[in-house]
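Session log. Operator J.P. requested a structure for one protein chain; no other inputs attached. Running the standard single-chain path with token output.
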Amino acid sequence: MHILPATPTTKNPPTQFRGDVWLDVIASPQDGDQRMTVGRVRFAPGAGTAWHSHARGQFLHVTQGVGRFGVRGGTVIELHPGQTLYTPPGQEHWHAANEDCFMEHLAMLEAGDDPATSTTWLEHVTEEEYRGGA
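Structure written below.
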């Protein structure tokens, strides 16, 4: 057993995010057969991810604020502190803060067989998609 060193907060890149989004890695694989990564992600009001999917799915647990989560087809749902969302493997989705408040969630996922394919990033979310349109 050992205490992991703290990692610096990183600001997520504009190629994959809109607005200001910060990541703190909480847990990452330590041994060769481990796959789990956990991160605390903080979104400024209205900030969010681009469309993406995960090879092995993802759990998102909202800890503060109000989050907006969308899937292809126009479905957008709101999550509040204490609620957890599961996105299955390969499901294209996005997550963002509501436009009037910050939002923080824990993001939990397992790496794909090739860690470089754990997350597939796609195009940015349009304003209409963010608001719940097609």
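Operator note: The longest helix spans residues 127-131.
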